[in-house]
Amino acid sequence: MQFVEEIVVDEFLPTVRSLLAGELRERGLTQSQVAEVLGISQSAVSKYAHGEVATNDRIADDERVEALVAELAEGLASGAVSPVQALIEIEVLIRDLESGGDLLAQLHEEAVPELADHSASFRVHDPESDLRTSERVLSSLRRGLRILETASGFASLIPAVGSNLVACTPDAEDVDDVAGVPGRIFDVKGQASIPADPEFGVSEHVATVLLAARENGADVSAAVNIRYDEDLLEALDDHGNVTAEFDESGDIAESIADALEAEPEATVLYQTGGMGIEPLIYVLGTDAESVADAVRELL
């Protein structure tokens, strides 16, 4: 009898650690530094480096594993990602790969063929649990924030009121279901300053715009606000976005409803300001990474 956790411990983790160790060494970290970052011994790092630890080629060649390893190696090497954050993101990927029919589930069924004949939908860990859903949202948001933080010139797009990149759970109903940056993102001497890790329930304004767009049929789960500029609107339009104007001086939900009724496919909402109201552009998307990428294309 073999549990899926044994597949994770015996094949997935050694493979990922080996890949991460190699990537970190290529980025100039010493064996002792790699050991400290990964929480393993220097002798273990040496074994990974010399190919003395068995790895699984199917896991190593999976595009999602490759992408996450490269992303985490870059973040860990630069200090932009903490070991705890890396652990969470790897944990999220593990749960996704354990879901019915995916890579770890396949390896488990191959190790225990009787599982393939089981009539019920076999799933050791429920990837749709509230905890897993929240972790996926936060993980996506952290990746989006890293894109913005490292994008040259992003600070120039931050309005006086600050920016916030937010993302919500699939069944979001109120601001508590939307994660964002506590205190917003500000331009500090030409650099984007992200004061803290993202949390749920800390954004009100951008979260309200996102929720209003979703309530009125927009298939979006993330948003960011940037300064208003006609040239930026034109650039967003050139990149394939549909733009729609709304009036922020009144009821935001009603104004956005009217804007989306006129432009149902809108992925960019904007308002041109008023007495005491700074003009802003809101870029919407299916996840935090795609929103951040759309903003990076403007630079």
Structural summary, described in words:
- This protein has 299 residues and is α+β, with helices and mostly antiparallel strands.
- It has 2 domains: 4-127, no CATH class; 144-296, L-fuculose-1-phosphate Aldolase (3-Layer(aba) Sandwich).
- The protein is 48% helix and 11% strand.
- The chain is built from 12 helices and 9 strands.
- The protein has helices spanning 4-26, 31-38, 42-49, 57-60, 63-78, 83-98, 103-111, 130-150, 205-215, 230-238, 252-262, 288-296; strands spanning 165-168, 178-180, 186-188, 191-193, 199-200, 222-227, 243-245, 268-271, 280-285.
- It has a 7-stranded mixed beta sheet with strand order 5-2-1-6-9-8-7, with helices on both faces.
- The chain is elongated and about 65 Å long.
- Mean pLDDT is 89; it is low at 118-127.
Brief summary of the model shown:
The chain has 299 residues and is an alpha+beta fold.
Major beta sheet, strand line-up: 5-2-1-6-9-8-7
Which CATH class of the largest domain is shown? Answer: Alpha Beta
Question: Mind telling me the CATH superfamily name of the largest domain?
Answer: Class II aldolase/adducin N-terminal domain
How large is the count of helical segments? 12
* Uncertain segments: 118-127
Strand content: 5-15%
N-to-C span = 55 Å
Structural class label: alpha+beta
Report mean pLDDT, rounded to a whole number: 89
Indicate the percent of residues in helices: 40-55%
* Structural domain count: 2
Element pattern in H and E = HHHHHHHHEEEEEHEHEHEEH
Pfam family, one: ThiN
Protein name: DNA-binding protein
Keywords: DNA-binding
Domain HTH cro/C1-type: 26-48
